[in-house]
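Lecture 7, part 2: worked example. A protein chain together with SAJ.
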Amino acid sequence: MNAPFDATAALGRKALAHPAPDHQVAVIGLGYIGLPTAALLASYGWSVCGVDVSPKVVETVNAGRVHIEERDLDRLVHEAIAARTLVAACEVPTASFYMIAVPTPLGPGKSPDISYVEAAARAIAPKIGPGACVIVESTSPVGTTERVGAIIAEARPDLVVPREGSEEDADIALAYCPERVLPGRIVTELVHNDRVIGGVTPACAARAAVLYTSFVKGDCLTTTARVAETVKLVENAFRDVNIAFANELSMIADVIGVDVWEVIRLANRHPRVSILQPGPGVGGHCIAVDPWFLVAGAPEAARLVRTAREVNDHKALHTEAKIRALIEAAPGSKVALLGLAFKPDIDDFRESPALAIAASLARTHGEKILVVEPFAETLPAAFDGTGAQLMVLDAALDAAEVVVVLVDHTAFRHLAPADLAGKLVFDTRGMLKR
Ligand code: SAJ
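Predicted complex, written out as structure tokens:
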């Protein structure tokens, strides 16, 4: 850990009545980001309390176990719990740093729902003392960090809460620092990626940087909270727009009658062209969601971002319609659907187009549908009552005349076109071409 940090100096105040001990971190939300971050901070010498509303999650973590699959996470949590540098609790403790890593789902009409962030701010408010720093990590609409400040200010009139553009000396620090890690590589990327640290004031950014520079090996780049909030949304919108381009190309190629995989492979030999891969749509809890936060902030201006979202959502419907046509071309045949996850080699089915397509097909074709998903022990609830079966790859391929690759898991990549000879095959990921 770095040398002890002088919170009083960074916040520009002469003295603090009750400075919080400078090595305690409360991480609010023990999900895909909060738990790895909490365990990592603990491994870097911080005293960490992970807070979650779910008693089951708290119990699991306190037993040194994990409730999510992520490379290296189980070892990290086990070691931190054994070393007593990490504990989990349902109540927010007094700490010197509060990190908010709770979900920010989409509400009705694709509008951002920041109620969990607001609830975290309300839970922190009674505990926070002078010198402490609150950092929002949840992907959030622009202005959320200021909203957190307003909630704390309302609950704690005894504290001077920082405001953007204000020169006033503040009692606490407030910052936004988005996570940008890739599921499946979270622990590595938490350490090695560059971080953008947006302070409500420059002193706030400096204070938050103390936490990040203690474990991040990438660069820690400071800016304002509003810029940092926008950066996160822009990163994911950039990827969504680029995937939408690939998905739209695949639909154009269907109309024109050319092989989209060959077109992309050859176009990418141009030194300044780098087209992404089409698929059955875009899934996960980030790329398929966050661009809507940008649209909500500037509905008239964000035309390309909105259209990209619509193209990617439409690609799932287009894919399902193509599979239905194949099934009709082989009446009475079994249909093997390979993969349910939102991308290869993870057990995460959230917002997965593969899952949505497979479940919809199962609802109309029932026991004809044979699902192969190495990351599932049983079929998810969306298949309840449909008659669809979960099978291992070889058995499903033996039984089915129609084969659809929905996810290019490593476990499927040994398949060659010759292995599927005589079957009707639809490869939504271009896996068999690689
Ligand atoms: N996909 C394609 N074609 C491609 C690439 C991806 O169809 O060429 C699909 C995937 O199959 C998947 C979806 O897009 O369904 C998203 O996958 P992803 O690997 O692009 O992204 P995530 O959701 O796993 O993680 C992203 C990352 N963001 C960016 O790459 C800009 C990660 O760095 C972020 O931290 C994460 O979102 C997040 O939490 O926001």
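Residues 139, 179-183, 235-236, 239, 243, 246, 276-277, 279, 282-284, 286-287, 342-343 surround SAJ (CB under 6 Å). Residues 1-20 have pLDDT under 50 and may be disordered. Keep this in mind for problem set question 3.
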